[in-house]
Amino acid sequence: MKINIKLLTLAIILTSLLFAVEIVGQVTAAQEAKILKSIPSNVVKKTKKKHRILVFSRTEGYRHDAIPFGNKAIELMGKKTGAFETLFSEEMSAFEPENLKEFDAIILNNTTDLKFEDPVLRKSLLDFVRSGKGLMGIHATTDNFYDWPEAAEMLGGQFDGHPWDGQGVWTVEISDPNNVLNAGFKNKKFKVNDEIYRHKLFNLRKNGRVLISLDMSDSVNLSVEGVHFTDKDIPISWVKNFGKGRIFYCSFGHTPSIYWNSEILAHYFAGIQFLLGELDAETTPIDFDINTVLDFEQLSKNLKKISHYKFGQSREAHKNVRQFVSLATQSQNATLHVEKELDNFLKSNATLAGKQFVSHLLADIGSEASITILAEMLYDSSTVEMARYALEKIPHKLADEALRTALMKLDGKLKIGIINSLGKRRDKESVPQIKEMIFSSDIEIAHASISALGMIASEQAITKLEKEKNNVAPGLHQEIEFALLNCADALLEQNKNDQANKIYKELFDASEKNSVRHAALRGMVLTSSENELNKLLINVMLKENSKIRRGVPMIVREIPLDFNISALIAALPTFNAVEQVRLLNALSNRKDDYILQMAIQLSKNENQAVRSDAFKLIGKVGDFTLVQYLAEISAQKSKDSKTAQNALYQLSGEKVDMEIVRLIPESNDEIKFQLIRSLRIRRPVDIDSKISNTLLQTATTGKVNIRVESIRALQFIAGKAELQSLIDLLIKAENTKERKALEKTIVVTAHKVNSDSVATQIMLSELSQSKNIEIRRSLLLTLAKVGHSSALPAFRKAVNDTNETLKTAAIMALAEWSTDEPIKELETIIRESSNPTHRTLALRGFVRMSNLPGDYSEEEITNRFRLAMELSETDNDKKMVLSALSKQKSFSDFQMAAEYLDNQTLRAEAEIAVVNIAAYILKAHPKEIKEVLLKIRKNSNDTDIITLAQKNINEIEKYEGFITLWQLSEVYSNENEDDFYFEFPPEKNSKNVKWTTMTEISDTNTPWQVNLTNIFGGNFCVGYLRTNVWSPIEQKARIELGSNDGIKAWLNGKLILSNDISRTVSAGDDIVEIDLKKGWNTVMLKIRQLGGTWGACARIRNVDGSKIENLKYQPWREE
Q1: 501 within 8 A of 493, measured Cβ to Cβ
Q2: What predicted TM-score, i.e. pTM, was given to this entire model?
Q3: By its UniProt entry, which PANTHER family does this protein fall under (predicted)?
């Protein structure tokens, strides 16, 4: 038994028990049966060995309802075929190198927005695949890694929208009919009900093989709102190699029904076999001839529109051209054709706004052919910036020559821009000219020249910076220091460690500022030998000032794991307690013996914070030899007990669980309890039943708390072999607490090992033999929760038993049945029983089953609730029905709940049901729902309900009432100042600002926001919006603002908001309470762009978020 299995299951447990429920709990028995039936029995190729697969389904963004279905399908696939076993996790620690090394493949099931912020985990995943392992992505897997390009490229694509949503039926085609992964499909084209992703492809057609695509000749696929005219190549499934490893991605998997589609499951299974190296599949790329679908006439038409473009007008043509260019880059010939068209555009009489857009496109696709026209534009003050931007990014030596020539001919701010570009291009040949400019009388030119030398980092540049460090103007001294740091960093990238170290040492001089010294210290560490590194850091920790010491842990994290830093660890006790804690945290990714020994020593420190961090470190780097020590501390009633417990739960190593088992019989009761609990939390895989046998022994002897904890641990460890023993324990249980724990353990175990039938037969046998009413009652309750249909006859018999206690227990158990199979029996009891208790129990069960998931239409579910109301005899029963109804999500259920709003007795429950259901369906039926919610807001006596109703009304009105009448300024930027804080002319009420009134909606897909990308384009700049608001009275209100990226807002000339942030536009991200004066009020927004798209939205509401009547808007008016 090896640690990786246990550790991954541990990762699940440490979150909460709910995780295991989510993996399988949302899949009904009927759905599971459909999945199992659909899994292929005749596999393409028998596996050589049984593999282990990690199935990971963490979501930090949208969470798909299909995740449990995907998990269940993979789990059953492994069991049915015998090809692999699965372990499930949602903990990032699953990707630690020690945890991954025993797995053969990873499946990312609908993960979203994964960050992988820890560089160790990033490297671990990439190394795992490169080494020859497999990685599969299901559906939303491409909705990740937005700040990790290497991982996105490894997958082959990144989510770029889904116009083909999960409500539609789409035609797809097999792109590679002869590929072994497609052997399960009967037809070259077929229809599927699922959500299909559009992807931004990362060289997929060059290094991957597309297996399935969306049929873009299909009229339905083409007619969907949101489809771009450049949507020609929409891959759905593909395979590719990554290092020695294998990648398989499939966009199918949004809709639960996908997981009982036999052809798609066959595709999945073949893909998994490919990942595991059991199935050879062709991965050679198949070209997609983009030239056959590109329409250059469309490009010309859109460029013609752009040639007349002015800021403030629609940018629809810009979007079309940008998409066209992106598509054309898949073909070298098409790219050259596009480049020629763009070059001709720059030579034309197009507007400056149009030329700016085209120049930015050439920055991405331009070649030697574009340099001549761009070089000419450098000498026109109106085009120099756009030309420089493009030349800066074109990878050709002629671009350097053009910039160097311009450097000697231009002056002032234009020269500064050229210097910056040459610096970014690291053009060594420009150093002789630039180095003389560091003494320029123009301080901005001097700044730019020093910065450029730092970026170029050539030997000549370094020599000049070092020589003149103390000769430049006082204000430039620190500029040279930062430039030298850049030089040293560049040398480090080139593995010129000795040269880099020399610069870092000079900059670490005590006379330098702490910010410079910290950066220099980091560089010294990264360029030093092991011996020098240890001496350096010890000396720093003992002699340097506190600000420098505070930065050491961050630097320590960057030291390669194979570096020996034992001397630094040994010196830890000589540092103060706070710094010991910081360094311990920084060392937590190391598993060296000397770190473990130091952690043990520090776990006995007099400072509790130090002890706490030491125990955390022991949990990460410890082994089986620490089990007894941690268990002893855990058993004490001390401040360290909890952290020691957690460390015991996290210990890794293949001997840990067996050491726990070994210690249980010989330990006192307090320690024994902690050891047993640790097994419950760790959930080890019990292959040979040794762990279960030990727990079965402790479950029958000793104190009650130890027996109960043993039973609870068996819930996660016991298997099919232990079912008989668990049921025997249930029959012999001495108290209610043990009996309840055993009932739950039996149910969980039966479900976990797919042995519902086996458990049911054992319990039915015991039921038929037992005369003890309490035992029979307990067996009935457990049978009901297992929910196997073979037990129903026994219940039908028990509900007619003459013993009222048993009869009541049988009805109670039927009411708790895990499926809705006995719902008819419950209806009969409600209608025919003369016992009020029995009728109430049956009604509760009937209502509960009405809420169970299943293949029922909305009408069928609502009819069940209507029947429940019909069967209810008391107001309390009816209130129970309405309370259950509140969990539904259909319009028909909403309508049913609304029918009881006028019933004074039931109104409170009806109101709750209405507002709860409304939250799920308000977008589909906004008008009808808003009408009912307004009625509740007016008539309800419950302030909480009124608040919820208003919240739903606000959501309905969320995109109502946004200001669409604006005037826009031109865009601004200042190379030497932070644009967000720099006051451009609009903030100074300058009369020279050129304002343009918006004449049309900027983006028809999101009419509530101003899409500044479509209007301005732009890159790293700011723009201003202004309008006037007329209020009939003086009143308090609130303004709801959204922006991409940072935003400042003024009302009547007063700054009311300043939020320097990077984000996407979302309605109401910022809400500011304001005072509207009677008459006209002025609103002005400043929006900052930090690259990519940008935009803004604004609306004015009452303080509670409701609509203000009679406001008027006018973009501008004469004073």
Answers
A1: no
A2: 0.57
A3: GALACTOSE-BINDING DOMAIN-LIKE SUPERFAMILY PROTEIN, SECRETED GLYCOSYL HYDROLASE
